[in-house]
Each structure stands twice: as structure tokens, then as C-alpha cells.
Structure of HAD family hydrolase:
Amino acid sequence: MIKNIVFDLGNVLVDFDPPRFVMEKTANKDQQKMLMSEIFGSVDWLRFDKGTMNREELLTSAKSRLPKELHAIAEDLLDTWYIGLNAIPQMEELPKRLKEKGLSLYILSNAPQDYYLYEDKVPSHSIFDGIFISSDWKLSKPEHEIFRTFYSHFRLNPAECYFIDDSAANILAAEETGMDGFHFKRNFSALEKALTALGVL
């Protein structure tokens, strides 16, 4: 029996769209490509998410690979990227509906410490029973350890949890640690059907 619904953040609850963030800083296509590659597409961003690299270290590393004329833009981008996050419209009501059905709600997400600057943008974040952010634990999906630590921290039985994530690799890792899930690709009607089939909607 499913008692807990576990949500990812980016592209599940909020719209994480780095190309849009970059385009808002420069209209130059070559500059956009470089900023995407050296910031959001870099291994350093994964470290930033994991909490093993802070924002200042990420910026210093990116500047070492970017031309000098992009340094100020890169700094501005890293200082403000999260301002461009918006709630995914269909997800604004779903947590409330699930909560009304008696489900416990959790967030399990790869996210940097900047999460605490934008948590108010997360739909219904105040009604979640627990929030587990990768950078707090120096772990990241799809590593099995982050799932096991999540279950242990909140004393959850993975068989009683259902995970919603936009990454197939993360869903597979969840399943390998005992938690079934749904690969969310903005296919909200399919998600509703899956939750209804589980008897939680």
C-alpha cells in the first residue's frame, strides 16, 4: 500500500530551463553555447548539486574556461538563475490533492544550496512532510546511497513510497532500491492515471 509520494524538484514541481536562463542574459548564440557548456552542462554543476562545490568555486572554475568578456555574465547568471524558476502549472494543485487523501509528501532532489533561496517557488512546499536535498548530504541521484539514506532518515519503507522524477535513470535507481516510480515527462494526464491506479487519487 502506497502511503508516501516522493517528488523530484526540477521539471517535476518547478520548471528548470537553463537555456532560457542563459538567453535572458545574452542574445549572442555563441555566448549562450559557451555559458551552457561551462556552467549548466559542466561536471562542476553536478558537484554544485551534490554540495561538493560551492557557488564561488563553480564561478571560479567556469571563468577559467570562459573568455573574459563572459565573466560578468557568468557571475550574474550564477547569482540569479533560480529567479527564473517557475512552478509547473499542473503541479500546483497535485500535492494538495494528495495531502487531502491522507498521503505523506516528500521531496528528494538533486539541488544545490541555492534551493533555500527559491524554496518558496516550490508548489505547496510548506505541506511536505520532509525535504531531502542532495547538497545537504553530499549525495546525488541516481546513486543508490542517496535513496537508502533518504529512507533511513525519514524512517520510510520504500515499498510504501512512490517516486515521481523526470529522469529514467533516477526512476530505475529508485526501483532497484525498492521504491516504484513514474517517469514524468510533462505527461500529467498519464501521471494522474498512474496515481489513480495506485488508489491514491
In short: DSSP finds eleven helices and seven strands in the chain. Residues 95 and 124 are 7 Å apart (CA to CA). Strands lie at 4-7, 14-15, 86-87, 104-109, 130-133, 161-165, 180-183.
